[in-house]
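Pasting as-is:
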Amino acid sequence: MRRVGTAVFVHHSAVSREERELAEERFNRGSDACIVCTSTLELGIDVGDLDRVLQAEAPDTVSSFLQRMGRTGRRAGQVANTTFFCETTEGVLQAVALVELAKSGWVESVPVERRCWPVLIHQLLAMALASDGVTFEEAWAHLSRVPDFGDIHRAEAERLVNWMLRDGGSGSRRGRLVLGPKAERRFGRKNFMELFAVFSSPKTYTVQTPSGQPLGTLTQAFVDRLVDGVSSFLLGGRPWAVLRVQHDDRRVVVEPAPRGRQPTWGGFLPQFLGFEVCQRIRALLESDAPVGYLDEASAALLAERREAMREVLTGGGGVEVLDGEIRWWTFAGGRINATLRYALEAVVGSDWKVIPDNFAVKLRGETVDARRFGEALARLRELELWEDERLWAEVAEGLPSYRLSKFQPLMPPWVEREVVASYLLDVAGAWRWLSGSDAALERVPAGVRRMAAGEESEAAPPSSGARPSAPRLPTERERPLVWVDSDAGLAAAVAALRRESVVGLDVETTLGTRALCLIQLAGEEVTYLVDALEVTELGALSEIFGDATIAKLIHNAPFEREVLGRYGLELAGVVDTLQLSRGRRGAGIDGGHSLRAVCERELGVVLDKTEQVSDWTDRPLSEAQVAYAATDAEVLRALHGVLG
């Protein structure tokens, strides 16, 4: 372009303001000029009316495509236009999908975010800085009216502030919240300029070895997609493995990548395509209709891809079985496929490696075959799997630590997990795609928001003292509760339960490790809560658990068998109410067979499962935890009366 007299400018966030303003001014003058840019020109910068948009590959959304094309065709006698230059088959398919969706009048809706934690932290810091401190009451009176925080409860905001006070993000002066030393170090430069906006201003990071030898620099956009101990990249023609990213002093510490390890970019934040775009690509591949606006090379690529996928999509139902690998062509989009990955890993364990992208979920491993995949798929189509708050809490604890906000270092671990899960997961969308039904599931399950073991104390006010170990038992109950926290108490409970013919049994555990915390045993008149963290000899329970003449009522018994088996406690005489429900109502009944669904269907009782994934290692348990634990064992007796 320069050889034929066109002035070419570069326009992106890291270019100096003077260079950007020069490019914008030349466009406004109407001179012969070209801007090579990123998405900065989607932000409403006035550069006048463009003659043509030349798009490298394809953007991810219809809205981006329309925004860029909308820069053209503003003068009389002209029409809006965009020419795509695609180097890959996927780029061609994506560009066609965007054009076809736009032609149909469809564009992405704007999701309403009502749990916007990064903005809440930003506002707390800004309010504290603006008025020499602010009380929590003053801050919450203002912030609780903002729609962005509409689903953040006051108690959650208080836990956030307590964490920040302990962690140094906030400080307290005469009862008012002020900036803490950690926030001062991160945001105090240039008169707190970084607090003027939620997004980050561009920075450069120095790449160096552990000994301090400098190797080069990287932009922040690149660094934000790196994960400690996972990512590798090329710099100066050599592959480097990331040891750690130090955001405080903007350094990336690396070591030479091991021989044979290629840069994988595996730690990068995935870039998701939406469900509708991917579904339109599938429809394009299943169709034989020509696309009139493709050039000859692109039309040939489309025809080749249609032929390659025809048998898989029609005869194979979207499942491609290879040697040691299965490709499940969902065309459901990146977020749904990522969610399917975590659900599959919960079903099949660690035997398979599950790799999702925008179009497919790949499964690899020595034991991968069509039969086992079919069994796993059948499990995925059970609603109770998707309603299992414990499962999603465990998934959240294992999510990668992607850096999505500059305020993430000030977040408590449970908030950071939720922020990452909000980017990676769509549980409601995955179930809707799998089942075709619209069950009342959240996109990000409530279990993701629960605190893990030990985190509740970190969210308590810094001045809170030690609490007693025994809980306060709920008093407004028809059935008495007995708290068992000694060997003598357990012996007395076992002696009483030996006279029972039916016992409701449930357990509470930690997330992830599934360490036993509480055992609930519901007899005919009394419910016993056995503190597994205090009782030293749980073997006394074998008198009940091993006696086949005493029916043990359990919902989804394999979980209890696995947990109790670790402690040498084998179960005989088990009656699984989940299996009773399936036998009575059929496996595919609407609503599924989770305990909550079965109780609502059979008893008209709506169980509150909020406490399911709370911290069961903390002592004393709250009244809500005690009531929840007791009810889950007691309700099994009522279900047995209906289903047994």
